[in-house]
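Notebook entry, structure prediction.
Reason for the run: the old model in the group folder had no record of what sequence produced it. Starting over properly, with the input documented here first.
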Amino acid sequence: MSRDALWEEIFSTRAWGRYPPEDLIRFCAQRFYARQPRSDVKLLEVGFGTGANLWYFAREGFGVHGLEGSEAGAAQARQRLDTELPGWNRGDADRLRVGDMCEPLPWADNHFDAVIDNDAVTCVDHDSACRVYAQMHRVARPGAWLYVRTPAAGTWGDGTGEAHGHNAWRCSEGPFAGTGIVRFASEADLSALFKPWNVLQIEQVSRTLENRSKVHAEWVIIARKAEA
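New structure, fully documented this time:
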């Protein structure tokens, strides 16, 4: 599920977002804008897609790293970074990697100041997602931060189409139709998903669609790894 071939087609044939969500920018600004030098702040995004978030963070001067399951998405991200921010990788050609998020993350323990999941881990089943967030905890430094944005149960598309395990669907309608398997987390799911982390904030962002007849809701989770 984490490397659905469908995403090669999606990233190869469709225009995709070029900017991060406002709440992710705010998350970074509140915690890291005062840090100097910013290049010493290491941020990891798991499932970075075409790289909009990493582009923004690199533009702000932070050290960015990422894992993406789609070759096409990763290629677009590298091209944009190389074109718009020459020298962004500071000699480390391995900052953006292609791989399966359900495998152990290819970084050492206690390495990053923040780890990010912006609607990526939703593509794997509940048990796999628990393991991914545990891996993100492993590679985070003591005191590091976690930002997660993930679809909430009840969002348009939840319960439609073909079922794929706990709260997961290949949706037949709504904004996730045609994007493969999507897991819609219930509030009861959150404690298991983020078990290794100290969850500090559980928020929800939503918007209406189809003249207010449908709702698109997402959890925004802010958590922290315990200090050593």
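Summary: Helices lie at 6-13, 22-32, 52-59, 71-84, 126-139, 190-193.
The old model has been moved to the deprecated folder.
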